[in-house]
Design a protein that fits this description.
The complex is a heterodimer of chains A (347) and B (822). With 347 residues, chain A is α+β, with helices and mostly antiparallel strands. Chain A has twelve helices and nine strands. Chain B is of the alpha+beta class and 822 residues long. Classes of the chains: A alpha+beta (347), B alpha+beta (822).
Chain lengths: 347, 822
């Protein structure tokens, strides 16, 4: 019997070592320790062993059983490990690049616009929007621009034929022409006509000028304007807003200054200069960044506000110009080419 | 407009004011200085005339020369100087800065060694002496100037010329006297007007020179002044006048023409000088032209006039386009002996319209368009007569004419210093305010107390400041002279309770931009205006017509965009042609949707996903497909408050431009406020656009007002309890015609729920198909859906689920359109 035990163990060892799959293992396990297995059969013969030999034989059998059981466990462990290894495949080279597309990028004009809107939101300004196709009233008349003002000429402003019908842009004056807005100030008029002061809005948006395209001009570009209407709004409040905006955007070293200027819709009117020599590609001490002023009483009159009660300021600037300044971009056309080598720089 | 400093100094004492200080003053008075050209030398010690004797190449530097230069015995005779200028040739006389000289910009000249060669001074280029001009080479001096002569003696005189941008509200500043008035106010210096001696006296009557002036259009010409001068002698104008005209960029012609230009640049009043013998009938008529009448202007171009254009005519023909330009054959020439001088005020709108219609502008029309001061017209004419007599001789003869201009000027504005300070938000003392106003010739003619606001001033406005007529205008004047630079900083932006939210379009754009960037798209910005040719690939010819501008600037930008896809294709093409591998692009922005001749301006979102045929990768990924696009479109629509799953989705046919039939879908209509198209772009169109590979796209457009409506309607969601009981699952495979869409079958099955005899607490949810549609013979297909039976209150029994499922199968088989797949 001892010989038989040894023979089983001797046979089991190479057989188990050669097993590859869990099914083969289960079959092999059944052959040895299953109900009809060789080892089980041997155990059953214990009854035939003479009584005096039983303790010794029992010990032998138990030892062999433990040995076989350990071999089986080890085999199963080995197969389970091999199964996991097979699921995983070979180890990855972590330096290989991901073949997936990405990442996406936000356009620099959007980045600058949104940053300005966030800065202005802290000062209580919410974003207003309006149509890009406008009528002469909203773009010019209500903004104190007389009918024969050069800015209104077909030379400078894009118009549509008198027969054009834009269903969701209402005309204020019968017979007035549709045009592409030349500034986002039309949004100020729409906002003031719709509501009552106090008003604090920022209106970023696309505007159009009939102009040659070059490094600093483009047929359409973007503006960002602020309008504040309340009681007792002063020139100094306007200066405070501009100081705040540009210090937030460009750093505390940034200074602003006013130069007297002329706009039909503000009085007094100023051009705004920035001193921000820490920015890339800024060589001059002062650079012009926008126009502003106190809302002209004639504009209040046009929207039905009492100019003796209400006062306000307005400020406007070009977003492209601002983005060029912030990022040191030297040609406006980059914004409209959408070369991804450009776009990826600002994400 | 160019302003000469020498000329200015005739009217206001600016001695000792450095150029940069003047420039600053002009800037802060509100006139942008676009350029300064300085031809006057500042006093420079130790800079003398030298003559280059020899020139040799520098041994250690390619671009340098070693010269010997004679600077005169008193300055040490011959010196060796290293020079980098290309024109340091022997024989040239040039300015030499000797050691000890200090050039503008605090540039100190010393003996030095340049690349190992000693250099005993510096030869100078114009800019190094503080003169205008470039740095291209040395300033070559007149060969007759003595060697050793101090440079200030060699180059006496000179001038500083400012090029100014005058804002349209300030026509009064379009002259030297106008700028002198402003600078006088800034520096608080008196302004001296030119002395005018002629007071209208005439010597004899000569109707054979000029018999009549008649104004037929007094509305367009409210004032016309004419003086006749007999016996003038045409010749060059005096040197001082020529010098000033040249300084501001005008070419001197002769004394008669030059006087006209001179007075215009001096006082801002354009003038015209007629040769009397060319005035047919001795009669000047200011009238509207006849339609079809012609004139050949001084620039030798024939111009067709119409009945809205004002002309100065004689008995037979137009002589001058009023206020704009004279006729070629009415002007003065060498044979002129008798002249008529015109000074007038023309209505700005009339001059502007005619100038624009003719495409003809001049220094004169520029001023008339902006408005000259009619109350100074006569004085300017008298000034011109003085100068004519002085430079060309002759005598003023009668009759002289003044037509119109009878209304005297008077304007007063009442303002309180308190009001000015309130508008400013900081204090400028009343005395300082008053001083500023009076410096600008805005005199306080009366001062009266008010009840609470201190004194009220009545301020008289001079005739040349027609732009001032309200108290707020005086706020600007006070601030201008106080200095806009000095507006104090405020510690913080004042608070305001404004109850408003960002516009719905803005919130929507932000949401979709954030989503698409997160989905690896690059945001693009393209032009709104596109070409007709491009539009025709996308919309019908009639729509193209509705989107056209009246006056495009260039052909490629003549129409409003009806989609963002065309711009994105252009961006894709650019990137492909530059070898950039790009798959995903998007843009948000306004698009213009045409329907039956009516255009709607919509908020749009467009994106493209391009196959990149040239991409090489170590690990290929599945190609993009329709359903990837569909998911993006669903999420974009959801951001606008639209549940795309609840909308009928139609496959596109040939009627949808730009999309590939059978590979794209559409939902919504601009009639209901929004529309979406998505899927594969028309392969032929994409190829014609020069793009390689397939391109999938999505284009969503919504009316801004619809977006606002959706956002206000969107309510805060209410919590729904989540069931703790498992659902019972059954699968059903339905046989339907191949033409039937999956959504139709799914809706049909869902619709059977009430007929299944389910308890009230049981709900049936028909899930999305879990296997590919399976084609069967006879143009049929099999669609397999999972069915979820669930109650929020209990676990269902097998019995009730089986009963309901059997009932469902029976109803499907009885439907006539569908069968259970056996």
């Amino acid at each position: 019997m001892q010989d038989t035990l040894n023979a089983i163990l001797a046979k089991a060892q190479p057989e188990l070592a050669a097993l590859k799959t869990r099914a083969d293992f289960e079959a092999a396990k059944a052959r040895y320790v299953g109900p009809h297995g060789e080892f089980t059969a041997l155990m059953k013969q214990m009854g035939t062993v003479p009584k005096d030999q039983r303790p010794a034989m029992g010990k032998l059998v138990n030892e062999a059983k433990a040995q076989l059981s350990a071999q089986l466990d080890a085999t199963l462990e080995r197969i389970a490990a091999a199964e996991i290894a097979a699921q995983l495949g070979p180890a990855v080279d972590p330096t290989l690049p991901s073949p997936d597309v990405g990442p996406g990028t936000t356009h620099p004009l959007t980045l600058v616009r949104e940053e300005m809107c966030r800065i202005l939101r802290k000062a209580g300004f919410t974003v207003a929007d309006g149509p890009e196709v406008e009528t002469e009233y909203y773009c010019f008349d209500a903004l104190n621009t007389p009918p024969d003002h050069p800015a209104r000429a077909e030379q400078d402003t894009f118009y549509f034929p008198e027969t054009a019908r834009f269903a969701n842009v209402a005309k204020k004056i019968p017979g007035e022409k549709y045009l592409l807005r030349t500034h986002t100030s039309s949004v100020q008029i729409r906002t003031m006509l719709k509501g009552e002061p106090p008003i604090r809005i920022v209106s970023p948006g696309r505007v159009y000028r009939r102009d040659t395209s070059d490094a600093t001009h483009s047929a359409n570009f973007h503006q960002l304007e602020c309008l504040y209407v309340d009681k007792n709004v002063t020139v100094r409040d306007l200066k405070a807003l501009l100081d705040y905006i540009f210090a937030s955007l460009l750093g505390k070293d940034t200074k602003t200054r006013f130069r007297p200027h002329y706009f039909g819709y503000t009085e007094p009117s100023f051009e705004v200069d920035l001193s921000a020599k820490h920015l890339p590609k800024v060589k001059k001490e002062w650079i012009e960044i926008g126009g502003c002023g106190m809302v002209d009483p004639s504009v209040f009159e046009a929207v039905g506000y009492d100019a003796n009660v209400w006062s306000g300021y307005a400020f406007g600037m070009g977003l492209e110009r601002l983005a060029m300044l912030v990022y040191g971009i030297d040609d406006i056309r980059y914004f409209y080419q959408n070369d991804v080598r450009f776009l990826k720089q600002f994400a | 407009m160019k302003i000469s400093l020498n000329w200015l100094k005739q009217y206001v004492n600016l001695d000792g004011v450095p150029t940069d200080e003047l420039q600053r003053a002009i800037t802060f008075l509100g006139f942008e200085v676009e350029g300064v050209v300085n031809t006057a030398l500042v006093p420079l010690a130790n800079v003398v005339v030298g003559e280059i004797k020899t020139r040799a190449k520098h041994p250690n530097a390619d671009k340098l020369s070693v010269c010997t230069v004679d600077v005169g015995a008193t300055h040490g005779g011959i010196r060796t100087i290293v020079c980098g200028a290309p024109n340091c040739d022997a024989g040239n006389r040039v300015p030499v800065a000797l050691p000890g000289a200090v050039l503008p910009g605090d540039f100190r000249i010393k003996q030095s060694k340049i690349r190992g060669q000693p250099s005993d001074g510096m030869m100078c280029a114009p800019d190094e002496l503080g003169l205008g001009g470039d740095h291209a080479g040395l300033l070559i001096l007149d060969g007759s100037l003595a060697i050793g002569l101090p440079i200030n003696e060699a180059l006496p005189g000179g001038d500083t010329v400012f090029d100014l941008e005058i804002t349209p509200n300030r026509p009064d500043a379009l002259s030297h006297i106008g700028i002198a008035r402003e600078l006088g106010a800034w520096f608080r210096k008196d302004v001296t007007y030119p002395e005018v001696t002629f007071r209208g006296e005439t010597h004899g009557v000569r109707p054979d020179i000029l018999g009549e002036i008649r104004v037929e259009s007094p509305e367009d010409c409210p004032l016309y002044v004419g003086f006749a001068v007999a016996g003038v002698k045409v010749g060059p104008s005096p040197a001082w006048m020529q010098e000033r005209l040249k300084a501001v960029g005008l070419r001197p012609i002769n004394n008669l023409v030059d006087v006209g230009n001179y007075v215009m640049l001096e006082l801002g009043q354009p003038l015209h000088v007629f040769d009397a013998k060319k005035i047919s009938g001795r009669k000047i008529v200011i009238r509207l032209a006849a339609d079809g009448e012609k004139i050949t202007t001084l620039d030798a171009k024939e111009r067709a006039l119409n009945s809205r254009m004002l002309v100065i005519a004689d008995a037979t023909k137009p002589l001058v386009v009023a206020g704009i330009m004279g006729g070629a054959d009415a002007g003065v020439d060498e044979s002129t002996t008798d002249i008529v001088l015109e000074a007038a005020y023309f209505r700005p709108q009339s001059v502007r319209a005619t100038s624009k219609r003719l495409g003809l502008a001049s220094d004169s029309s520029y001023r008339f368009e902006r408005g000259v001061d009619p109350h100074s017209t006569l004085e300017a004419a008298r000034r011109a007569v003085d100068l004519l007599l002085e430079t060309a001789g002759g005598t003023v003869v009668g009759p002289s004419f003044q037509v119109g201009g009878d209304r005297p000027w008077s304007r007063e504005i009442t303002v309180t210093p308190a009001y000015i300070n309130e508008r400013l938000g900081f204090e400028i003392p009343a005395t300082e305010q008053r001083a500023a106003l009076e410096a600008l010739n805005l005199r306080v003619v009366r001062e009266e107390p008010t009840e609470q606001r201190g004194p009220a001033w009545t301020v008289s406005v001079p005739s040349y400041r027609g732009d001032l007529d309200r108290p707020i205008d005086l706020v600007e004047e006070v601030l201008r002279l106080y200095g806009t630079e000095k507006v104090p900083a405020a510690p913080a932006v004042g608070p305001a309770l404004v109850d408003s939210e960002d516009a719905p379009t803005v919130i929507f754009n932000r949401a979709v931009t954030s989503y698409l960037v997160g989905q690896h798209f690059h945001e693009c910005v393209n032009y709104t205006l596109r070409s007709a040719k491009e539009l025709k690939t996308w919309v019908s010819d009639s729509a193209v017509q509705e989107l056209a501008l009246t006056n495009p600037f260039v052909e490629e930008q003549s129409h409003l965009r009806p989609t963002l896809v065309l711009g994105l294709l252009e961006s894709l093409k650019l990137n492909q042609s530059r070898g950039n591998h790009v798959a995903r692009l998007f843009e948000t922005g306004r698009v213009f949707m045409e329907l039956n001749g009516i255009v709607q301006e919509c908020a749009g979102v467009g994106f493209i996903i391009a196959e990149d045929p040239k991409a090489r990768t170590w690990l290929p990924r599945p190609a993009p497909d329709f359903f990837a696009v569909k998911r993006h479109v669903e999420i974009i629509a959801a951001a606008a408050g639209i549940d795309l799953a609840a909308q009928p989705l139609v496959p596109v046919t040939g009627a949808y431009w730009g999309w590939q039939e059978g590979q794209a879908a559409a939902a919504g209509e601009i009639k209901v406020g929004w529309t979406v198209r998505f899927g594969l772009l028309n392969l032929a169109m994409v190829r014609a656009a020069g793009i390689e590979g397939k391109v999938w796209a999505g284009m969503f457009a919504i009316l801004p007002e619809k977006l606002a409506e959706q956002q206000t309607r969107r309510m805060r969601p209410k919590f729904q309890p989540v069931s703790n009981f498992p659902a019972a699952l059954r699968d059903v495979a339905v046989v339907a015609d191949q033409a039937t869409t999956t959504a139709t079958v799914q809706t049909f099955i869902t619709g059977l729920t009430p007929k299944l005899g389910l308890a009230a607490d049981v709900k049936l949810e028909v899930g999305p198909i879990f296997d590919q549609p399976y084609k069967l013979p006879g143009n049929k297909q099999s669609l397999a859906f999972p069915l979820h039976f669930a109650s929020g209150q209990r676990t269902l029994t097998d019995q009730e689920v089986n009963d309901a499922f059997k009932k469902l199968q029976m109803l499907i088989n009885e439907s006539g359109n569908y069968n259970i797949r056996s």
